[in-house]
Amino acid sequence: MKPRERMLAACLGRTTDRPPVWLMRQAGRYLPEYRSIREGTSFLERSSDPELAAEISLQPHRRFAMDGVVVFSDILIPLMDAGVELRFEPGPIVSNPIRGERDLERLDASVERSMRPTCDAIRKLKRALGDDAAVIGFAGAPWTLAAYALEERLSRDVLTLGALSYREPSLVDRLLDKMAAVTAETLALQIDAGADVLQIFDTWAGMLDAARFDRFAGRAIRLVLERLPQPRPPIILFARGASHLELQLASLGAEVVSLDWRSHLSDAAAAIGAKVALQGNLDPALLNAPEERIRAAVHELIDAGRKARGHVVNLGHGIQPTTPVEGVGAFVRAVQEWSPR
Description:
Elements: H1 3-11, H2 32-38, H3 43-47, H4 50-64, E1 68-70, E2 86-88, E3 92-94, H5 112-129, E4 134-140, H6 142-149, H7 159-167, H8 169-193, E5 197-202, H9 210-227, E6 235-239, H10 246-250, E7 256-258, H11 265-272, E8 277-279, H12 291-305, E9 311-312, H13 325-336
Parallel strand pairs: 1-4, 4-5, 5-6, 6-7, 7-8, 8-9
Antiparallel strand pairs: 2-3
């Protein structure tokens, strides 16, 4: 199978010759060629230059030939068109966090201008890759975007959004409605640019119990999916630290649920693998192990994933910056060399 065909088939639960493989944050600091580009440029300069963003996106594919190439960008980029003053030092800092009802009006703006470089990079990737890899776009989920927009520097426990959801739940509902429009437009623009697959990152959904997830974050994701054009590319939904939410995640309407490394893939395949395809979920730290250990873990993972409707091999979170390049190569080769017994 061609890599693009393999990726799409796995996401849609169709038969594949082997599972496809890509890695969250696969373009980044673990690569020496990325570090050389990083010197002398800021993150916003790199992400706002379509040529540079496309080049960074292609770097890991040239080395490892993954089945998916994710565009180099950030989930917070769209907020810059929505009245959020944002800079990266290197993490995100919001100069004008949302404080109340009046600030919500800022979020009504279109995100087309801030997303234009990312969409242009997607078009370049489509031309460069053809069927050699699926082009993956992404967006932040409404709950996670709201968490960042409410604080100058996001607190480890997402204190402002957590407190506000109890104190003024109706205000949080309206904030999430605004963010759902931002997320939906972000994804729709990438669909227009030719993205083959899209991933929604709900980094902070794991802080919610099942009932509050349904009440806030899950409701907002449903709004996003309802707003997308039909037919649309497959959607992957990732929520970090959310093994307790797997049933809820599988019911929202995405084609794929991505698991973090603390979930058991075999258990998830038994519980939800008939409803959705699964993605993941090797512990990112395992890429520091010897090649034989990585290969054995990957083959065990693939065997567990065969019980699901479809399986996309990935890590349970993004690659760690100190990961050895050799570990990434061992991971990808283990998938590419796998064959059913």
